[in-house]
Each structure stands twice: as structure tokens, then as C-alpha cells.
Amino acid sequence: MRVPNSVVLPVGTHADCCHEQEVAEKTHDIMARITAMLVERKSNLAHFVDNLEGSEEPKFYVDQWERLKEMESCTLTILNLVAVNCTDHRDIKKLEATILEHVKNEELFPEVVRVLPPVYRQVEAAIVGIAQSEEVADHGMMDLQYLLSKLSQHEQLAGLGRELLQDILRYLHRIGLVVWYEEIKHLESTVFLQPTFLITMFKLLVRHHLVQQLESIS
Questions:
Q1: Where does the pLDDT of residue 109 fall: very low under 50, low under 70, confident under 90, or very high at 90 and above?
Q2: Whose CA is closest to 12, among 80, 97, 84, 102?
Q3: What is the pTM of this model?
Q4: What is the dihedral of CA 33, 36, 37, 39, to 10 degrees?
Q5: Is the pLDDT of residue 93 over 60?
């Protein structure tokens, strides 16, 4: 909700635990709840803006007002929910096809037709090669400066600078090839070349009944 022009595809898992009619009813209910949430958000933002504008000293709240107006301008496109049975490979392929169909929609993603500079592709290919090499640990964590030095060893990337690399990493982060938390101080110098490792870690740490399982340990 804080990212301008976001596009969200809700995905409902465990469809195999419900009858077909239940899936339809739950899908309708979830989409109705999302719609109500967006309406409430818009109403709350308008209420906060009105309060600031009607305060006795509005000049003291300029920063808050600007932030709220910025959030008001952030549009959020919600696509139709996709219900999947994660144990059925056919459903996973169906989800994949749905995502690709939406991503190729120029109305939803105007940048899909943007032509990237050749250096973006060259860095992407080089990073894939580095990630697959034996010298990289399974966790795929690599220091940003070290990654730059490795990339610079490629003839066509000899003149690659840190600032350009950071721009390219932002793009590769957006498309999911790497993960780079540049906004987190303790992680800004670390690039995760294997996003699947993070997913595995999160699955171990953030899961159902985790608190109860930890509390059961003497």
C-alpha cells in the first residue's frame, strides 16, 4: 500500500482442503474484504489529512501532511484471486501462467516494453554464472564490493562502477533474481545471490505453531 502503482495478485492456497463451492465462496469473501479494506484506507487517509489541515498550527504538520498526500496518490490494483492446491503441479503451472499473463499486460506494467541497456543483461548473465559456480556457498551471500570485483573481471564489465551496479541490483531485486536489502543498514553491503536460501530460512523460522514448539522445549 506504500508503493506507487502497486499490482497485487492474491493467492489462496490449500484449495484441496475445500469443496469447489467453498473455494468460490471463500474467494468471493476474500475479494470483498480486500475491497472494504481499500475503501477504509482511503477514508482514513482523507480523515487524517482533514485533521491536519484543520489543526490550529497546520504549519507544524507539513511533513506529515505531505506524506499522507503521497500515500493518497498511491494507487493499488488488486487482481482476481487465484486458488491453488500446492500439492498439485498442474495448479502451480496454472499460477505461473496467470502471473506471466498479467506481467505481459502493458496496461498493468507499462515498463514491460522498456528496452534495458546491454550492460544490464551482461551483469545479469555474469551474476547467474557466479551464483552457479562452486566457489559460492549454498547460502549465496556475497559482499557487494566483492561482487563488483568479481564482475569487473569480465572483459565487457571491466569499467563497471559501484553506482551503476547498484542501479542494476535494484532491477534484479525487483525481478527476483537476487535479493538486496539496501534500505537495511546491516544488510546494505550484502547481496543474496540465492533467494531460495532465504525462502528456506523463512519457512523454518516463520511457520505455524512455532511459538508452541519452542515453548515445549525444556
A1: confident
A2: 84
A3: 0.55
A4: 160
A5: yes
